[in-house]
Every structure is written in C-alpha cells, then in structure tokens.
Amino acid sequence: MLLASLQNVHSVMDAGLDYRALNQFRDMILCTMPNSWPILDYADYGCYCGKGGSGTPVDDLDRCCQVHDQCYTDAMQHPECWPVFDNPYTELYHYSCDKENKKITCESKNDACEMFICDCDRKAAECFARSAWIPEHEHLPSDRCQ
C-alpha cells in the first residue's frame, strides 16, 4: 500500500484528485536518498511496498512500508482528518528538505491532519534511508506474503 501511493498516480489523476501529494512523498524520499528512484525501487518490493500488503514483512525496508501503510490507515481515522477531503494520498502539506544533512522537517504551518500525514511520509522516507534494499526481495511472488 505504501508505494501504491506512488504506483497509482494515474489512478488518482483519473479520479480527478490532486496527485501533487504523491509527488511530495516521492520528493521526501529523494531528500533522504538523492540517488534513488522511488517509483522503480519501491513499487514492487517485499510484501508491503507497492499495491496492497499482507503477511510478514521480509526485511527492514518492507517493514518501513508496512508501518507507512498503517500510518495512512491511522490518518483516515484521525479526529482532525476528514476522510474524503484529507485523504493521505492527496492531502498537501508543508515541509522543508535540508539537502546537505538529508533532513526533512514538517512545518508548523500544517494543520493537525496535514502534520500527521507529513510525519507519516517523513518517517517512511527516513526509514527507507536507513534500510537495505535487497534485490531478491523485489517482485516477490504473492505466495511468499501470506
């Protein structure tokens, strides 16, 4: 589900929603990992990075995706988030990137819902940066994720 957000840009665009929020997440990943290719690297990795998610995460990176998925689920239940208007896949928020230190800051001008979603994305981007990408975990067969 985590990078389903990146993978499903066309679906969001087709639905008439604002896809710039998806690009914010991609840009956060690029802040912490400037030489990465977020859509290619994470669209079909492990059991949770990409569309859907089930089973036991296969490694730390896959666990980052699982935690991000849960964070987005929690955002949909957050008391300050209105489910249709504050969808984590489309909600815009304010953040800054310190490229030299590869540090993301969610800005105080965010409302409570925007801050929650920004923190979901920030924590995931930071988690990706400290987790190894293991080639054998890309394109896992679905029967490995039950």
TrEMBL record:
Disulfide bridges in this chain: C49-C65, C64-C127, C71-C120, C81-C113, C106-C118
Subcellular location: Secreted
Keyword Metal-binding: yes
Active site feature: H68, D121
Domain of life from the UniProt record: Eukaryota
Predominant place of localization: secreted
Cellular component per GO, a single term: extracellular region
GO biological process: arachidonate secretion; lipid catabolic process; phospholipid metabolic process
Keywords assigned by UniProt, alphabetized: Calcium, Disulfide bond, Hydrolase, Lipid metabolism, Metal-binding, Secreted
Protein EC: 3.1.1.4
Cofactor detail note: Binds 1 Ca(2+) ion per subunit.
TM stretches of this protein: none
CC cofactor: Ca(2+)
Catalytic activity entry: a 1,2-diacyl-sn-glycero-3-phosphocholine + H2O = a 1-acyl-sn-glycero-3-phosphocholine + a fatty acid + H(+); 1-hexadecanoyl-2-(9Z,12Z-octadecadienoyl)-sn-glycero-3-phosphoethanolamine + H2O = 1-hexadecanoyl-sn-glycero-3-phosphoethanolamine + (9Z,12Z)-octadecadienoate + H(+); 1,2-dihexadecanoyl-sn-glycero-3-phosphocholine + H2O = 1-hexadecanoyl-sn-glycero-3-phosphocholine + hexadecanoate + H(+); 1-hexadecanoyl-2-(5Z,8Z,11Z,14Z-eicosatetraenoyl)-sn-glycero-3-phosphocholine + H2O = 1-hexadecanoyl-sn-glycero-3-phosphocholine + (5Z,8Z,11Z,14Z)-eicosatetraenoate + H(+)
Transcription regulation in keyword set: no
Domain Phospholipase A2-like central: 21-146
Residues that coordinate or bind Ca(2+): Y48, G50, G52, D69
GO MF, any single term: calcium-dependent phospholipase A2 activity
Family per record: Belongs to the phospholipase A2 family.
Protein name listed in UniProt: Phospholipase A2
Organism per entry: Myripristis murdjan
